[in-house]
């Protein structure tokens, strides 16, 4: 049993030697006079002090019959409360500064006593009966001792004659105090024997080992060993000390001295550990014959003979570890078969240090300690056949041999220890303890107890919760010959390394008992055991971590396997959801049971976060944990709502019916299922809460509006609870949105909520219940919010990069978005109609549906803007969302003919509306939209003449009213001229376009004037009748069509005439037909006008354009009575020429031939054979979209009749003669 000691003199300052010379043994009695001794008998013989081998082992007994308090439990280890510390010890340790005043301790299972000591005081008590505490003074440091105080080394002295043991305390400067009985501690502990080891300058003690009841070994920093022997003199026990040296042999001759082989000498160095080995032969009473003593001096393992006090062998473990930096020996132990276990430490490499730091302490940051020492276990065995085993070189491997003094040792293995100290750790010397003869090594650090198995890859550890205020002071192991506490007879019969073994753990706050199942440790399977260990660790965290009295802190070991972590965490979370009885205690109170399960899951994620292990978990695993927690929270809220429903006086629950229907469709296959289907659902089927929603919706469809309050409210509660829990705990679980296949937005959930919204809408808008308060109207806003949230959540998932791997995800995303875009405005408008406008505005804003938001705010008075009841809200949204919202306001005003609203807002002093209008124009044009009908007004106001003119030209082309078209073209032309006047470049193409368009308007205005004159003869009501006016025009202008029974052409002419009489603008093709289909008795120039208009048209498909040219020429040729004209009997050539000049053909040529550019356009000049082609049916339908099929046929027949008429006239010679005549009249012949 040893207290912490420095590892090396260069790492810790060497204590300065006292100027006081070493004192010899003396008896000190500080007991006050008159105070009787509590000793009932004196120790008079050496036989009163027993060897360890002869002592009857202390038999622990079960304390009481109550339930034990567990602090931790896995399949391999369980830790429970054993006993409280005495009041005096708790008082001293409470608030102790372990950095400035180290403490040490031990639990001695030989004597049954526990010990805790500081540099000043030593406390000893029976560990199962802490009511009596023995307080003994420690050896004081010398007056001139400049180093920080150090706790003494200690050893309890077993006694057969009394129940209380004795005590030996050894200070770091070599002062020893011995009490033959600790009962002296009840009276101040002043009666003790004091001796001093004769240490050299700069030398200090480094350890104390009890060999048996009489012999103790002390070690020093200079590599020297002292033998302390307990003897009886004059009825009193005394302690003597001498330096380790071979005893002189009587009768040894000079010759034998000269020829004898000298004993090997040890390499001196700081001895950091002592261990008792197993020698050959019988051990006599009071004699340690043939026993071996193992010491660890720096990195050298030394084997000594206790009987001869000579060095038997020495090897350096550095060769076993290999090339590491700053290797130090820390502690050693001897297994039952003689195998040596050495604990070493070294400075980790940069990569190793970083990995250990991340695993043990989380992310680096401010105040995060960086590991500085890493630990490993080296197992060595005696090498008896050195010639058969190759020399081990380089370290780090098994099977090699380390050569040294007195022989070599075989390397059995090197194992890493899952722990690393840091600069922030309290000073302490780690110590190892062997369990099961070495089957498990327990390594005690200042704040962690690590277990490493010999025969399996098992490793685990116990960590203190508050290392700054708590420490592991010492351990005590029940020896194999002792029956383990709370063990069955079968367990006691198991062999070494197979059954359980108990370890006492003394901390600054409590004494715990750990039971290690050596059999389970030995059969630990690495393939599955890692995940099982992680799950067990997580289970402990949520079961025992919440206990404020638990001194243990649960943390992951360094380099925790990510896959094992995720598997263990997910499995534990699912076990909580399914009410696993090993984790969740059965409870008839379901509310309490649900609360307990919620707490378990909260502790689970808190534990993962506290250990900085969340970064090792994949996003899918994190979301599974978050989903389990939110489902449990949603079920808890649903259960509370169901209880409220029944507590309010309801005798029946439709939610209960839904759960029964769900269970009937999907039976529960659980061994713990009961007759209470509802409670079983909440106990075992929380994970299926999403599948319950469709069954709840069916209750609404079956019952009607009466089910809306309960069932609709229940579904809203489920989804709202889940979504709010998720949003609140995103950072806790490290969830990165969007969720992967979220259960709250599966198609079945979305469809169910939409059905509820439809039902609530139908019930809320029922005219018969307009003035009554109903549940549907109240729930509509909440259900709409849930529907929007579910739809948006699924859209986010389908649009995420992860979902691209899902088949059909892109198609589903497009379809769902179109569906949402269609439903969203309808639902928002329904909310407005049902007095939920604030909710509608909130939903529209949260989903960035600014178009719907603008529409909702303009359903009342909109002009002037100041009279809009939502004017202030509009301003707030503009300030909040800027142009995204403002542009939608502009759009709404333009689309609904209220552009004056935005112009008024601009004029009222908010000039930013002009900017928003410009942005809207640009956005619309960028998307191929048109906004010229309003935008030109702002362009004119801003002096953008060219832009305004271009807009007006475009808008005029699509204007449906002749007057409007004329106005736009006129203003546009003026704007273009204004630009030229300001010095801008003239755009001839734009000017020509204005001229052509204005000419076209003039043509329509002239035709309209002719038609109105034709209908001027109407009187009375007929004058006001549009149909009468149309008929009058047709009678006056369509005599030829009526005579030739051209029903198709007559029908379309009626349509066009009717439109013109209404003031509507015709398309160019329509105007061409009107110009050429009327009689033109006095207006033959209309044919040339039609050719001119058609020649300059740019937006007509070429095929239809050529067909129109052919129709015009057919009508030109059919206009005159050519048979009469060509009748030449008694007609002079001059008369014939006069007849030709009176034809429409001559008039048309007279207009087109003077312009070479016009006449050279294809179709403008066609002879009779070139105009005979007739439009096909598809072309006719394209030309006159929407007309009846019968009229299409009539038109086709009329077109054929026109062409047939021209063909029958045989006008080829006439065409050339008239054309030549026109050329002669124009003077081309004279020029020739």
Automatic annotation (TrEMBL):
Q: Which UniProt keywords apply?
A: mRNA transport, Nucleus, Protein transport, Translocation, Transport
**Residue span, Nucleoporin Nup133/Nup155-like C-terminal domain:** 872-1203
Say which domain of life the source belongs to: Eukaryota
Q: Note whether RNA-binding occurs among the keywords.
A: no
Any GO MF annotation of the entry: structural constituent of nuclear pore
Q: What is its main location?
A: nucleus
Q: Does the keyword Protein transport apply?
A: yes
Annotated localization: Nucleus envelope
Annotated Gene Ontology cellular components are: nuclear pore outer ring
Domain (Nucleoporin Nup133/Nup155-like N-terminal) ranges = 75-281
One example of a Gene Ontology biological process annotation: protein import into nucleus
**Which Gene3D superfamilies does this entry report, sorted A to Z?**
1.20.58.1380, 1.25.40.700, YVTN repeat-like/Quinoprotein amine dehydrogenase
Region (Disordered) residue spans: 1-40
InterPro entries per UniProt: Nucleoporin_Nup133/Nup155_C, Nucleoporin_Nup133/Nup155_N, Nup133-like, WD40/YVTN_repeat-like_dom_sf
Q: Which family is this sequence assigned to? A: Belongs to the nucleoporin Nup133 family.
- The protein in question is named Nuclear pore complex protein Nup133
What is the native source organism of this protein? Answer: Suillus luteus UH-Slu-Lm8-n1
Species lineage: Eukaryota, Fungi, Dikarya, Basidiomycota, Agaricomycotina
């Amino acid at each position: 049993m040893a207290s912490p000691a420095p590892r090396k003199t260069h790492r810790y300052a060497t204590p300065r030697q006292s100027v006081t010379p070493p004192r010899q043994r003396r008896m000190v009695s500080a007991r006050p006079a008159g105070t009787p001794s509590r000793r009932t008998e004196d120790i008079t013989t050496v036989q009163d002090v027993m060897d360890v081998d002869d002592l009857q082992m202390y038999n622990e007994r079960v304390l009481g019959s109550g339930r034990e308090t567990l602090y931790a439990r896995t399949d391999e280890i369980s830790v429970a409360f054993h006993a409280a510390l005495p009041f005096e010890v708790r008082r001293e340790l409470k608030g102790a500064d372990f950095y400035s005043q180290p403490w040490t301790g031990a639990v001695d299972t030989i004597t049954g006593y526990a010990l805790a000591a500081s540099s000043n005081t030593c406390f000893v008590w029976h560990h199962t009966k802490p009511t009596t505490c023995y307080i003994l003074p420690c050896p004081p440091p010398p007056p001139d001792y400049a180093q920080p105080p150090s706790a003494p080394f200690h050893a309890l002295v077993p006694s057969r004659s009394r129940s209380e043991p004795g005590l030996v305390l050894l200070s770091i400067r070599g002062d020893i105090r011995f009490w033959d009985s600790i009962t002296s501690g009840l009276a101040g502990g002043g009666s003790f024997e004091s001796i001093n080891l004769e240490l050299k300058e700069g030398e200090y003690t480094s350890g104390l080992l009890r060999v048996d009841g009489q012999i103790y070994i002390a070690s020093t920093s200079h590599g020297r060993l002292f033998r302390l022997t307990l003897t009886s003199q004059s009825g009193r026990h005394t302690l003597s000390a001498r330096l380790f040296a071979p005893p002189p042999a009587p009768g040894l001759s000079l010759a034998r001295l000269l020829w004898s082989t000298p004993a090997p000498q040890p390499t001196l160095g700081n001895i950091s550990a002592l261990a008792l080995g197993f020698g050959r032969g019988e051990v006599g009473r009071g004699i340690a014959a043939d026993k071996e003593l193992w010491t660890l001096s720096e990195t050298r393992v030394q084997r000594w003979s206790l009987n001869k006090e000579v060095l038997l062998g020495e090897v350096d473990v550095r060769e076993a570890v290999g090339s590491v930096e700053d290797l130090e020996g820390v502690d050693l132990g001897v297994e039952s078969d003689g195998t040596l276990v050495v604990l070493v430490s070294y400075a980790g490499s940069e990569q190793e240090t970083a990995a250990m730091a991340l695993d043990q302490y989380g992310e680096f940051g401010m105040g995060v300690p960086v590991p500085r020492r890493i630990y490993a276990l080296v197992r060595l065995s005696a090498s008896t056949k050195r010639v058969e085993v190759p020399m081990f070189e380089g370290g780090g491997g098994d099977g090699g041999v380390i050569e040294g003094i007195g022989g070599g040792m075989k390397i059995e293995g090197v194992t890493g220890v899952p722990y690393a100290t840091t600069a922030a750790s309290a000073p302490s010397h780690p110590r190892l303890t062997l369990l099961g003869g070495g089957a498990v090594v327990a390594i005690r650090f200042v704040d962690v107890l690590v277990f490493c198995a010999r025969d399996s890859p098992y490793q685990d550890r116990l960590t203190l919760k508050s290392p700054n205020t708590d420490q592991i002071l010492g351990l005590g192991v029940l020896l194999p010959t002792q029956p383990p506490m709370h063990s069955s007879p079968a367990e006691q019969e198991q062999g070494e390394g197979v059954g359980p073994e108990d370890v006492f753990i003394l901390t600054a706050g409590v004494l715990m008992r750990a039971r290690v199942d050596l059999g389970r440790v030995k059969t630990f399977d690495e393939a599955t055991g890692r995940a099982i260990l992680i799950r067990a660790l997580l289970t402990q965290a949520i079961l025992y971590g919440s206990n404020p009295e638990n001194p243990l802190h649960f943390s992951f070991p360094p380099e925790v396997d990510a896959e094992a972590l995720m598997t263990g965490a997910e499995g534990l979370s699912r076990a909580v959801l399914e009410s696993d009885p090993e984790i969740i205690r059965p409870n008839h109170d379901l509310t309490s049971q649900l609360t307990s399960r919620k707490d378990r899951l909260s502790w689970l994620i808190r534990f993962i976060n506290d250990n900085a292990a969340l970064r090792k978990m994949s996003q899918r695993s994190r979301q599974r944990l978050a989903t389990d927690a939110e489902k449990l929270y949603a079920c808890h809220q649903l259960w509370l709502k169901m209880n409220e429903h029944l507590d309010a006086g309801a005798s029946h629950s439709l939610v209960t019916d839904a759960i029964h229907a769900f269970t009937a469709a999907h039976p529960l296959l659980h061994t713990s299922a009961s007759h209470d289907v509802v409670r079983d659902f909440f106990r075992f089927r929380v994970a299926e809460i999403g599948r319950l929603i469709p069954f709840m919706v069916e209750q609404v469809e079956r019952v009607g509006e009466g089910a809306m309050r309960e069932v609709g409210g229940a579904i809203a509660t489920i989804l709202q609870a889940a979504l709010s829990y998720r949003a609140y705990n995103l950072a806790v679980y490290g969830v990165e949105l969007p969720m992967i296949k979220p259960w709250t937005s599966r198609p079945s959930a979305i469809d169910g909520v939409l059905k509820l919204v439809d039902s609530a809408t139908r019930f809320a808008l029922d005219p018969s219940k307009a003035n009554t308060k109903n549940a549907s109207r109240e729930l509509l806003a909440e259900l709409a919010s849930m529907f929007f949230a579910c739809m948006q959540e699924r859209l986010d998932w389908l649009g995420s990069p992860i979902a691209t791997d899902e088949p059909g995800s892109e198609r589903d995303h497009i379809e769902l978005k179109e569906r949402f875009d269609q439903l969203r405005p309808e639902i928002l408008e329904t909310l407005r109609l049902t007095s939920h406008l604030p909710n509608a505005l909130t939903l529209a804003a949260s989903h960035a549906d600014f178009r719907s938001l603008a529409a909702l705010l303009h359903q009342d008075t909109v002009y002037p803007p100041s009279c809009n009841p939502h004017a202030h809200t509009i301003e707030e949204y503009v300030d909040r969302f800027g142009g995204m919202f403002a542009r939608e306001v502009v759009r709404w005003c333009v689309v609904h003919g209220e552009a004056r609203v935005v112009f008024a807002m601009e004029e009222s002093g908010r000039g930013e509306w002009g900017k928003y209008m410009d942005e809207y124009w640009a956005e619309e044009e960028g998307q191929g939209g048109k906004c010229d009908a309003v935008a030109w007004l702002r362009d004119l106001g801003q002096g953008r003449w060219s832009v305004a003119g271009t807009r007006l030209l475009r808008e005029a082309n699509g204007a449906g009213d002749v007057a409007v078209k004329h106005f736009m073209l006129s203003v546009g032309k003026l704007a273009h001229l204004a630009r030229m006047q300001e010095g801008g470049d003239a755009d001839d193409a734009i000017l020509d376009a204005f001229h052509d368009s204005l000419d076209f308007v003039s043509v329509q205005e002239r035709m309209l004037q002719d038609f109105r004159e034709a209908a001027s003869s109407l009187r009375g009501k007929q004058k006001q009748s549009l149909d009468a006016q149309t008929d009058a025009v047709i009678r006056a202008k369509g005599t030829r069509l009526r005579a030739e029974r051209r029903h198709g052409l007559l029908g379309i002419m009626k349509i066009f005439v009717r439109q013109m009489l209404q003031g509507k603008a015709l398309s160019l093709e329509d105007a061409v037909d009107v110009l050429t289909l009327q009689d033109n008795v006095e207006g033959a120039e209309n044919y040339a006008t039609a050719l001119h208009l058609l020649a300059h048209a740019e937006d007509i498909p070429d095929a239809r354009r050529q067909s129109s040219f052919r129709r015009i020429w057919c009508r030109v040729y059919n206009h005159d009575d050519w048979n009469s004209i060509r009748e030449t009997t008694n007609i002079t050539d001059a008369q014939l020429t006069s007849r030709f000049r009176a034809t429409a053909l001559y008039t048309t040529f007279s207009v087109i031939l003077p312009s070479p550019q016009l006449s050279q356009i294809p179709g403008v000049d066609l002879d009779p054979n070139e105009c005979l082609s007739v439009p096909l049916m598809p072309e006719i339908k394209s030309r006159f979209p929407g007309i009846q099929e019968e009229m299409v046929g009539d038109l086709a027949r009329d077109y054929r009749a026109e062409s047939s008429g021209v063909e029958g006239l045989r006008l080829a010679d006439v065409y050339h003669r008239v054309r030549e005549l026109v050329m002669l009249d124009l003077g081309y012949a004279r020029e020739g």
